[in-house]
Q: What sequence folds into this?
């Protein structure tokens, strides 16, 4: 069973014709491998990981696995991941995505910064400018997160959102420098939600911005940093700023 999960690590949640109980077992074993990899990074999951017993229903099992990983990632932080999830779901729904697509966006948004668990804490909290080496290290986090998740049979779009949430519409992002429609849709959605929430949150290097000013930044980034359609949809439909100018 485990080999099945390894061979198609990015397959849909449900493997057609395969007994659901065995799917749940594969998710359980995949999650065991993810927790081992986290331990190799020096990240402890304590009781939550040790006592982990996922539900027998595959979709619920994946939901539980994502919740556990999201809570480890947040580490008692200020709720950034939860807010990005809420905003990304709202944008995905406004864009007319199907229920399975919205679910993939939700999981991708919840886990988008998972790879930061491998980045030294001092670097994440550094108030001053980063050196080139520090920036290169930090910019590994999307790929590290996606690779960490490979034992779990998550939808491909969810893992793509993790791997590509720092791509830019104009191709100037990372890790792959993808442009425009080549950036997976779920990643384009998470990118808008992630940047907006970062702007309205206080960080060691900046104060929190008001929503209106942050929305202007999103509009100014339409067609350069962000998918222009999604950026405008986010500001008008998710935030409700219908007549806002950049
Ligand atoms: Fe990130």
A:
């Amino acid at each position: 069973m485990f080999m099945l999960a390894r061979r198609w690590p990015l397959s849909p949640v449900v493997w057609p014709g395969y007994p659901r109980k065995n799917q749940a077992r594969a998710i359980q074993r995949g999650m065991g491998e993810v927790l081992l990899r986290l331990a190799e990074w020096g990240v402890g999951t304590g009781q939550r990981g040790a006592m982990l017993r996922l539900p027998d229903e595959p979709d619920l099992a994946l939901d539980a696995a994502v919740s556990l990983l999201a809570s480890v990632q947040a580490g008692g932080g200020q709720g950034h991941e939860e807010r990005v999830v809420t905003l990304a779901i709202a944008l995905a729904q406004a864009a007319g995505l199907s229920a399975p697509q919205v679910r993939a966006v939700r999981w991708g948004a919840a886990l988008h910064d998972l790879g930061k668990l491998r980045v030294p804490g001092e670097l994440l909290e550094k108030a001053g400018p980063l050196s080139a080496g520090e920036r290169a290290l930090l910019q590994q986090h999307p790929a590290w997160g996606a690779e960490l998740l490979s034992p779990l049979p998550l939808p491909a779009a969810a893992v793509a959102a993790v791997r590509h949430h720092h791509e830019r519409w104009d191709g100037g992002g990372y890790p792959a420098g993808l442009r425009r429609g080549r950036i997976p849709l779920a990643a384009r959605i998470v990118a808008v939600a992630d940047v907006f929430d970062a702007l309205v949150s206080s960080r060691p290097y900046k104060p929190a911005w008001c929503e209106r000013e942050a929305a202007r930044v999103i509009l100014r980034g339409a067609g350069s940093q962000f998918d222009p359609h999604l950026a405008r949809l986010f500001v008008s439909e998710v935030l409700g700023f219908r007549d806002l100018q950049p």
Q: What stands out?
A: DSSP finds 13 helices and no strands in the chain. Confidence is low (pLDDT under 50) at residues 1-14. The domain at 2-238 is CATH 1.10.3210.10 (Hypothetical protein af1432).
